[in-house]
Amino acid sequence: MGFKMTFRWFGPKDDNISLEYIRQIPGIYGVVTALFDIPVGEVWPEDRIFELKRMVEDAGLKFEVIESVNVHEDIKLGLPNRDRYIENYKQTIKNLAKAGIKVICYNFMPVFDWLRTDLAKKLPDGSEVMEYNHEMLKNLTPDELVKSMEKGSQGFSLPGWESYRLKQLQSLFEMYKDVDENKLLQNLIYFLENIIPVCEQVDVKMAIHPDDPPWSLFGLPRVVTNKENIEKFLKAVDSPYNGLTLCTGSLGANRENNIPELIRYFGKMGRIHFMHVRNIKFTGERSFYETSHLSTDGSFDMFEIMKAIYDIGFDGYLRPDHGRMIWGEKGRPGYGLYDRALGIAYLNGLWEAIDKMSKMK
């Protein structure tokens, strides 16, 4: 198999899924994880990284991808003290490299990370999924949205929705008043110009995650949204270590983004280092809910997506993205065991069929 199949895991203290269970998923290679308790902007200590590495490898899994080393808001805003946080980020990259990390997934979304309006929409079959309803969002204030996310989290922490950061919501919005898309893009390029030379030295690839969803929210700028915008910062810092986490669900939420085409385009450039594969079902122009990975359950042709990944000779890391909550499972929204395991089986099946078909010609 060309790519390496992985599974996101939130660590021993904040995930109800054990490494033992993950290890039993057919075709699994490793886990994608992080040190979620380290405040954003602080250096990840070597001893903590190696402790996590030992835990994962003792379970018979590989420890090669981190998701995420979050970027401090001062870097995104371009504030004077951003250089201090960038130096910390460089040191974290070096520390992770010592532990054998090959790829770091991160994002550059202002204030909010991924966003949904319902974390437990019930489908007719009884399964629960995450939903984004653009019309509903128009009637919510940022504070109301945060309360809604916290209420629907099932008591689990939500990646990118750290409570200590969201307490500063009003002041953050105030600071972003003078930051448009061009300014945010320049701040991203400044960040990359500083960290990519370190990545080249220690052989760690950066893989930026697209904005989720890929359009402006509450007037905040977003720049990792489509082919044109992505190409700007990839060319501005033209290194194979400056790459993408190509998330089908995030980019695909904009109907104008042709996912197989984007995979082939950026894949041929050698800039896709990580794939997040999920399916969504459109319910409006900018509204959707997440589904099983099965093509017929959603709006994406998963065969065509996996075929594009195959055609570029992708040998990087891939994981099933958000799944449904099924069979009575309780857990972090989007991150249950059962449906993501089903997703892995389905994606592996598609890959095997594509591989065998290509060899029959």
UniProtKB/TrEMBL annotation:
<comment type="function">
    <text>Catalyzes the dehydration of D-mannonate.</text>
</comment>
<dbReference type="GO" id="GO:0030145">
    <property type="term" value="F:manganese ion binding"/>
</dbReference>
<dbReference type="GO" id="GO:0008927">
    <property type="term" value="F:mannonate dehydratase activity"/>
</dbReference>
<comment type="pathway">
    <text>Carbohydrate metabolism; pentose and glucuronate interconversion.</text>
</comment>
<keyword id="KW-0464">Manganese</keyword>
<dbReference type="InterPro" id="IPR004628">
    <property type="entry name" value="Man_deHydtase"/>
</dbReference>
<protein>
    <recommendedName>
        <fullName>Mannonate dehydratase</fullName>
        <ecNumber>4.2.1.8</ecNumber>
    </recommendedName>
</protein>
<dbReference type="InterPro" id="IPR036237">
    <property type="entry name" value="Xyl_isomerase-like_sf"/>
</dbReference>
<dbReference type="GO" id="GO:0042840">
    <property type="term" value="P:D-glucuronate catabolic process"/>
</dbReference>
<dbReference type="GO" id="GO:0008198">
    <property type="term" value="F:ferrous iron binding"/>
</dbReference>
<keyword id="KW-0408">Iron</keyword>
<keyword id="KW-0456">Lyase</keyword>
<dbReference type="Pfam" id="PF03786">
    <property type="entry name" value="UxuA"/>
</dbReference>
<comment type="similarity">
    <text>Belongs to the mannonate dehydratase family.</text>
</comment>
